[in-house]
Every structure is written in C-alpha cells, then in structure tokens.
Write the structure tokens for this entry.
Amino acid sequence: MDPYKNRPSSAFNSPFWTTNSGAPIWNNNSSLTVGSRGPILLEDYHLVEKLANFDRERIPERVVHARGASAKGFFEVTHDISHLTCADFLRAPGVQTPLIVRFSTVIHERGSPETLRDPRGFAVKFYTREGNFDLVGNNFPVFFVRDGLKFPDMVHALKPNPKSHIQENWRILDFFSHHPESLHMFSFLFDDVGIPQDYRHMDGFGVNTYTLINKAGKAVYVKFHWKTTCGEKCLLDDEAIRVGGSNHSHATQDLYDSIAAGNYPEWKLYIQTLDPENEDRLDFDPLDVTKTWPEDVLPLQPVGRMVLNKNIDNFFAENEQLAFCPAIIVPGVYYSDDKLLQTRIFSYADTQRHRLGPNYLQLPANSPKCAHHNNHHDGFMNFMHRDEEVNYFPSRYDPVRHAERVPVPPRTLGGKREKCMIEKENNFKQPGERYRSWPSDRQERFVRRWVDALSDPRVTHEIRSIWISYWSQADRSLGQKIASHLNLKPSI
Amino acid sequence: MDPYKHRPSSAFNSPFWTTNSGAPIWNNNSSLTVGARGPILLEDYHLVEKLANFDRERIPERVVHARGASAKGFFEVTHDISHLTCADFLRAPGVQTPVIVRFSTVIHERGSPETLRDPRGFAVKFYTREGNFDLVGNNLPVFFVRDGMKFPDMVHALKPNPKNHIQENWRILDFFSHFPESLHMFTFLFDDLGVPQDYRHMDGFGVNTYTLINKAGKAVYVKFHWKTTSGIKCLLEEEAIKVGGANHSHATQDLHDSIAAGNYPEWKLFVQTIDPEHEDKFDFDPLDVTKTWPEDIIPLQPVGRLVLNKNIDNFFAENEQLAFCPAIVVPGVYYSDDKMLQTRIFSYADSQRHRLGPNYLQLPANAPKCAHHNNHHEGFMNFIHRDEEVNYFPSRYDPVRHAERFPIPPAICSGRREKCGIEKENNFKQPGERYRSWAPDRQDRFARRWVDALSDPRVTHEIRSVWISYWSQADRSLGQKIASHLSTRPNI
C-alpha cells in the first residue's frame, strides 16, 4: 500500500460522509446526547473533528492585497527577444507557458468592496520549464516610495486608523507630506484610473526595474507592461458607490462570469529596455520606482500575449493559498538594485511563511511543474514524498550535482555601507507632465479629489501648505487651483 | 532589575526610534546599501526586523463574525434578581461592572460592507469579581439550526461559493430546504431587521437558553434581551446600497464617532425565565434555539442597563484580539442542554486558540480582572509572570485550595446515547404568527425578498416547491403570494 497514492481530493470521494480518518458518519445532523434532550458527550469525536476543522478554516490574510480574484490561462511569445534574454519560456515565438494570475486591491481587508480608490495588484505566475517566474506588479507603472524601508509605515498610514479602524486622509497626507517622491503615484491614484471598472479593463505593470540577461551574459534593464485588449475603463466616484454598494465583489464576479461565458480576457506584454551603460544619461534614475521611462525615448517592444481561459477550481486553494514573490525568477531574468525591489525579495516569501507555513511552495498552486530537488522540506505540513537516505549535501552516495551556471549581472559592486537617498530625485517633473497631458475635465476631477482629501478637518495648515507647495512645483496652475478651492495662498 | 516591570507599552516610549530589542535607529528612511545606488546588505537587521514584523501583522480572521467594532462601558443593575441567581455582579441594584462589547456582521470578511443582510453579533464581556462572563449573542432572538452539528455546513452554505467566491442564493436555499427549523430565523433575516441602520439602533439577545441558579441551588431557564434606548432603525435596500457604497465601515464609524461625541449608546437588560418543572407545558421545547418565548406568558423582567462610554485604545488589541466564548460563565449562571449552546461551549475557545494561540486569555482585553490561579499557562507567548516552584496540583508545599463550591443545575441527566432531533419541532407556528403581525407593506417587502432569492436561476423547481410549501405551512397567504409571483403552484 502506497500512502502517497490516494491523496485527499475530490477524485477519491466516498459516496457517504466520513471523518478525516475515513470512519463512516451515519448521522451528520445530530450531536451525540444523553437521551434525546440531554447534554452532548465529549466522546462525540465526529462533532469535535467537524467543529475543530471549521474553527481553523481561516488563515492570516495578506497584510496587503488581501482582497483579490484569480484565474488561469497561458502566455504565448509573439515576438523574438532571445537576443535580450536566455529565459527558456521566451525562447521563440509560438512558445506557450501555463500561468495563474491574481488581481487584487491593496489596502483594505478580505471582503472589502472592489470599488475603492486603491492600486490594483496584477501578479502573474508563469509555470516554466526552468521553474516558476513570478511577475508581481500593479495596475500603475510607479510606486509611492522608492525604498522599501518606508513600506511598513506607508501601509500603516494608508490602512485604517489603529484606534477607529477608519481610513483617514489626515494620516495619509501627513505621512506622504514627508515624501514628495509619492507625487507621481498620486497622479495615478487620484486620477480616474484610481478606480478601474473591474480587473479585465485595466493595464498591468511589473512596476520595478528588472534585468534581462542573454546567453552571452549581456544585461539590460527592463520594465514590463501588460496592455489589456478590452480597453481601459474606470468608474467615476458616483458610479463606484452604486456598483460597490450593490455588490462588494463585483470585479471577482465579472472575471469569473466572463471566463465562464467563454469571453476570455487578454493582455499584450511589452517591454522597455535600457542599456546600463546609458543609465546616467537620463534626468532621472532608472532604478527609481517612482519614475516611468518615456516611451518616445525608450519605446515599447512587443513580446507576447496572455489569455485567461480557465477559472480556478477552488478559491481557498488557488487564491487564498496562492503565493507570489518577486524573488522567484528564472535564468535570463534578474533583479535590479532598485531599493524597493531589493526589499520585496525578502518580504514576500517571509510573509507567506507566516501565512501558509514553511512548506508553502509545496502547495499545488505554488509548486514548480518541472523536476526539482533540494533538502528544504521538513517542518510543518511537509506532504512531499521523498525516499532518499541522503538529505545532506555534498555526499559521495548521491549523484545530484549543481545545475548549469546561469548568468547574473556582470557589473562590479563597489561603495561604502550607505543609508541614503538616491541623488537624482526629480520628484516633480513627471507628475506635472502627466497632469498637463489631460483634458480639462479630467484635470478638474483630479483637483476636486485633492481638495476633498485636504479638506479633512484634521489636516493641519502646515500639511495643506506642503501639499500645495508640492503640486505647485509639479504644475503652477494645479497648485493654484487647489489652493484657491481651499482659500489658501500657495507658499512658493 | 525586574524584567516584568517595563512591559512594552505606549507608556514607555523612547523619544527616538528603536528596534524591538531597544537599539537606536539613526535612519528610518533608507536601507543599508553598497554605495548610494547598490543592492541592500543582508546585515541590515533593522530593515529585516521591520519588514518581518510587518509581514506578520495579520492573524486569522474569525471564521464567522470577522467584521466588527467594539467599545467599552459598564453594566449597572437596576432591579434585584438575587432570588434567581447568586451571581455576584447581579447582587443588588446599583452594582456596576465594567464591560467590553463587540458588534459584528456574521458571514462576510473583515473589510466587508456593514450594510449586508446578515445577523449582527452582540457580544458582551462582563469583567466581574468572580471572573469574566461572556454573553455572546446576536441582534435576532433565534437561530437558523438547533443542533451545532449542522453549524459548519450551514456557514459554508451562507458563505461565498468556494469556486467563485460569490455569495449565492441557490446554495443557501438548497441547504436550508432540508431544515424547516430555519423558517423562524428567516422571518427576521428577510424582514427589514435584516439590515440594521448601524450597531446603536438594534436590540440584542442572548439567543440560547441559559440557566440561572440561586444560592439555594434552585435553577430556572433564562433568556436574555438587550433593548436599545436609541430605538430600532433599519436600512431599506436602496439606502443600504448608498450607505454601504459610500462607506463600507459606516457602522464602525458611527459607533466610534457617537462615543467620541459623548453620545453614549445604552441598552436595557431584560430576562425571561421558565421553571424547568414547567418545560413540558409549552407547544415548543424551551431548549430549542429556533423559538422565542411568548412575552404575554413569560414576561420580560427588567434587570439593568449597559452604557458604552469609552472607545477602545487600539483596534487590534481590543477588537481583533478580543475573544468571546459562551463557555465563560460565572457562579449563578450556567448553560442549558440547548444543543446549539452545548456545541458553542467547545467551538469558541477552540477557534480562539487557533487564531490567537493557547494563551489568548492572558491578553489584556481577555484576562480576568480578579485574582486567579492555575497551572495552564506555558506554551506559545506565555507572558504571565509566575515565580512558584510548585506548578502541579496537589502539593504539600502549596496552600492553594479549591474554591468554595457553587451551585450547578440539579437535574438528573439520563438516557441512552442518542443522535436525534428533538420531539416538539413545531417549525411553522411562530414564523407564521410573526408574519401575520406585520403591516401589509412590511409583509410585501418580505415576500418580495423571498421572490428575489427564489428567482436565482440555479434554484431548481424542487427547491422552489419545498420553500413554497414551507411558507404555506407557516401562513397560507404568504405561500400563495410567493408562488404567484414565481408563477409556481403551491404543493399543499
């Protein structure tokens, strides 16, 4: 008898109820009592097992991106970029790779409306022949802060007040008033794109700068872009109240129903690349996650397409237990020194170990679909089958060897230990350009949202003045407009 | 140096940032990198500690009642019931006991709108001189099922579909079509009361039948009622969409803002009592949680008042970590053989051990405020200070003794091991009476909500017929009304 053969699964259902040890249950309606009306006996093991499992159904939600929906499909290469990367899954046009995607909101809890003004997560796990590749991004191309050391405090400011549990603008505007690097992100969040219509009608971005490396070891910086073929659509504030008030899961339902109806959402993948030798020629730092790369100088190059054509079988197994991590890459793709990405490499796996346990990468949705081998598997809920006697390395009894060497970025690292900001901050140019690119009604809505936020009675005169100063530095007329609505004089 | 003196607290804040071991942090903005733009060093312990704590901020939400708000105040006895109970906190009019209360919705997740049609939790923890007393009830006086064996499946049916994560009527109406005992609960849930305006404008109930015992050992069955002095107010469907769409935390905010403004919500406590000698004289079983006790025969007796006059200091400590359990009673209050209550005695503590750890009753919000003593404290996160050498019982070195004996119900339990339903089900009378007591517009709204639910395209003809038959048995005109809207003929 092989204990690993009949793994627990819907495929091995008995036609009658049983306990988890397989004992038959002849009455699943009534507890075991003293007589028909007396108290329940402790020996009612079936009842205790049923309740104890139920009592433990919830695991910690994600500290961010708790609310989300997932779906499966494939990625297909449409354009050859093998001169840029040796990644196997990108080796030639026509190559398809299975994947799972999770869309999410960021700040609020599981169950929160999917109509809140918030970035949307856009995380893709490619099950490649060289192991999984997680491209863990958002629907906005930039981020609030450029060093992950600020991330926990940033999230605390955006989350509900720890006393009242209400999200409050004075806390958000206080925190970010110390970090003008956030202006560019706010030019997305407070724009109409701050509330996407649903998960199908939005673009995605890798957000951070990554590195592509080809077989010869040549590295280029890269940014990833997913463009929806459904068109970008957003909800204005009044629509969001009605949609979210009627169904707080409208985007989850939209994704599921679309796929069930055979209306498969699709995104095109594009990249922008930058030779590290040219990185000093820009007026911004290409490792600064608060910047976009101008598409007229660094054009979008098509790579492939992603189609979501299959709904998940079970929400808990393939959404709640689905774990992404930007550290999970494949040969031919590497990190950059982007300080936000560097911290993400640590945090994601760390938080999944808390949520799911040390063996979370064994869970079906997370495990690689290629052959793999190491000695990291004992501990809570190891359900892997291994029959080796040698579980150490190196050994003269075990022929397993190192994999073939994969190229890593060749640049020499040098410098003192530093805790400092980057030099080329350039916080105001891109948000100003973005604002000026809009028609006047879109500018008006943006201004109104800022006026609303700054009108929180607990926002002080000092904080209001700082923000007016910041927006004036991005665009003089924008700062003046906000100030005049608030009856304040801009400080510069 | 006493390691138990300076417990971590806002009261011992340093004026500058430190790590959790107390080391000063001289730069909380930037990670430790190789040069100004290089990768982050593993030795940046401060960064790793900050991220690792952040990564673990969430704990499992409650499997039910995840979404809620809490507040503190006091309970004051206004009427003497010391002839019914020897409970110290009920000993005489004028006696005040500090309390913490948690209101909640039941089915949806932590961030879900507080405008959904759902029962509302109403849980009160009394910090008495004889230990804590948890009265863990709801805003509706009855419950869906009368044996807790059905509870996990019931919640699964009410929760979102495990595939698409959307709450669906066909699953709810399928499950409950097997249990007509749920009809009475549905006359509350699908009534206007199903969406309270907020937590202040609703009543509360102990729901289950408990036992009061006086000094002489005489026991009476008891039901607890909390009557709001603010008046009961509900949201109709259109209002709920607007309120919940505009603020998914409106009830949390209302409770917090009311108390902050000095507008303290208040409830009066009433009891109904039945002498167990008379329990066979009714056409229902008084241990059946799907029944109310008619107030014309068993009148409400006033006991005291509950005033909430203080907001919590911290949402995580006093809401997320706040743990209730109906097993937590004081001398003079006891359980009954109500099969729902019997299972709750096990489940609540079991679930909190999963969520919070084995020492959850040491957490400040959960710990008794009276002197207490036992040997149950080691294990994860034991932070109690104990300096005894004898941590076993009995001992000739330790003078600790048994407490004074307090009375428990004197009834003799006898009977065979049984797994069965109760005899006097009487599922249709009370729901029918309740329906007939309403004005016609309220009856219409109730019928319309049933027609909407039964119109789910996945509700089969069989399920529709079962429900029409059930409602016809409660009230013939109600069944006909639903049937005619659905163009289905009633079966009886």
About this structure: Chain A touches chain B through 102 residues (CB under 8 Å). The domain at 68-159+194-362 of chain A is CATH 2.40.180.10 (Catalase HpII,  Chain A, domain 1).
